[in-house]
Amino acid sequence: MSAPVTIPGTREQCAALDAVDPLAPFRKEFTLPANGVYLDGNSLGVLPVRTPEVVRRTVEEEWGRDLITSWNKHGWTELPYTLGDRIAPLVGAGAGEVVVCDSVSVNLFKLLTAALRMRPGRRTVLGERDTFPTDLYIAEGVTGLFEGGSSVLMPSVDDLDAYLDEGVAAVVLSHVDYRTGRLLDMAEITARVHRAGALMIWDVCHSVGAVPIELTACDVDFAVGCTYKYLNAGPCAPAFLYAAPRHHAVAEQPLTGWFGHAEPFAFDSGYRPAEGIGRFLTSFPSLLALSGLRATLEIWEQVDLREVRAKSLALTGLFIEQAQGLDVVTPRRPEERGSQVAIRHPDGFPVVQAMIERGVIGDFRAPDLIRFGFTPLYVSYTEVWDAAAALREVLASGEWRAERFNRRGAVT
Ligand SMILES: *Cc1c(COP(=O)(O)O)cnc(C)c1O
Predict the structure, then answer these.
(1) What would the mean pLDDT of 203-221 be, rounded to a whole number?
(2) Among the options 228, 372, 381, 405, which is catalytic?
(3) Greatest CA span in the chain, whole angstroms?
(4) Amino acid 408: pLDDT
(5) Domain boundaries in the chain?
(6) Is 351:345 a contact under the CB 8 Å cutoff?
């Protein structure tokens, strides 16, 4: 997986790499800002050019014209499964192991509850203190439903061994940290968690579509991920979940809605879970949102993730080199890095606003991180070179101190 990475040292070298970039043809698949560079695809991916037409057809032809017959005629009932099967290659899973539904938080709730039920006698869920908070809130909520349950926050995954005792039912970790961009060793950590008798749940929100993932090869128990970041399915598009086939017959998730039933349209009064991955469904996801996912997966089916990874490492490596002298908190070692670069700065918020005014869209994560995401399908080497130059200029000139950069909206 670690192909040699060339880090360009001049703008001319960036242009030369762009000219031979095997992923460059994908750029025309996306609607990009007319002036500027979008380095926030790790938060909300851009709109694929083909998506409006696919969504329009769903609205006008499937819903508008064919109405209720679309459940069969257009395979609506199969979509959570068929779209899951199309996501599977992106996470190293097989057919029937991934299903599309709900949000990451809701899916984590279902999987964590199932995991605690699978490990009676163990009542602790372990997570990292600084992980994406919704995962921690859900762990707190789930363990609160079990007598003696507790969610324990490690200062960092580096302390895992000290916390992995026989009380631990499950460990929940982000494959790539949403703040620092640190990438964890999925195989090694999963094996360690299994040796301690616990189940391993990975959150791949910040790695799917950016880093090759091998859920089967790493022997992962469960995983959750989102489709609106690197995958570009659209704002708040449904999430997905993975469950290893060995758990399908035994995992009991608590949100036993009709679509998780063995025969949703038998309308039985009693609940009988579906046999396979279908038992993790609750209701049916929004059809319109699913059509955004359907559209973007047509693009992903043409993508070689090894090329994505190689370019991602080159782009992040380039940005880190060009950010010398700044407090880069993202690991410099390629094998420990996802597809984003975070820089600590006490005035991160106004610095990000000043960058946005210059056309470089990144984001700010409290309390003091400036975050730039690098999406290899639509960001070029030259753009990254220019973005780093803009950052140096914003900081050197102090232009971020202007009053207008200090007004905060509800979303940073
Ligand atoms: C984006 C993200 C989520 C999103 O959760 P939702 O419940 O789908 O809104 C969860 N976890 C991580 C690590 C994320 O990056």
Answers:
(1) 98
(2) 228
(3) 69
(4) 82
(5) 11-31+304-406, 54-300
(6) yes
Identified catalytic residue from 110, 122, 229, 337 = 229
Among residues 86, 371, 378, 381, which one is catalytic?
A: 371
Burial class (CB in 10 A: 0-12, 13-18, 19+), 201: buried
Contacts of 14 (CB under 8 A, 6+ apart): 8, 318, 380, 381, 382, 384, 385
Q: Write down the architecture of domain 54-300 according to CATH.
A: 3-Layer(aba) Sandwich (3.40)
Would you say the CB of residue 378 lies under 6 angstroms from ligand 1? no
At residue 27, the 3 state secondary structure works out as helix
* Atom number, ligand 1, closest to the C-alpha of residue 108: 7
Token look-up 């200029």 returns 393
Is 358 noted as a catalytic residue in this protein? no
Active site residue 311: no
Q: What is the pLDDT of residues 348-400, one digit of tens each?
A: 999 999 999 999 999 999 999 999 999 999 999 999 999 999 999 999 999 99
Strand blocks (E) in 179-252: 199-203, 222-225, 240-243
Answer yes or no: 28 catalytic: no
Instruction: Answer whether 11-31+304-406 and 54-300 agree in fold.
Output: no
- Other CB atoms closer than 10 Å to residue 253's CB: what's the count? 23
Distance from the alpha carbon of residue 331 to the mean position of ligand 1, in angstroms: 22
Q: Domain 11-31+304-406: which CATH class?
A: alpha beta
Burial of 247 (0-12, 13-18, 19+ CB in 10 A): middle
pLDDT per residue as tens digits for the range 283-336: 999 999 999 999 999 999 999 999 999 999 999 999 999 999 999 999 999 999
Report the alpha-carbon distance of residue 161 to residue 374 in Å, rounded: 32
Radius of gyration of the chain (CA): 22
The reply to whether 133 sits in an annotated binding site is yes
Residues 133-150 pLDDT 10s? 999 999 999 999 999 999
| Residue with CA nearest ligand 1 atom 6 | 104
Q: Could you give the percent of the chain with pLDDT greater than 90?
A: 96
Contact predicate 354/405, CB 8 Å: yes
- What tokens does 365 get? 């994560």
Residue with tokens 């950590």: 189
pTM over 0.90, yes/no: yes
Is 132 a catalytic site residue? yes
Neighbour count for residue 105 (Cβ, 10 Å): 16
Helix axes 287-300, 79-87, angle to 10 degrees: 30
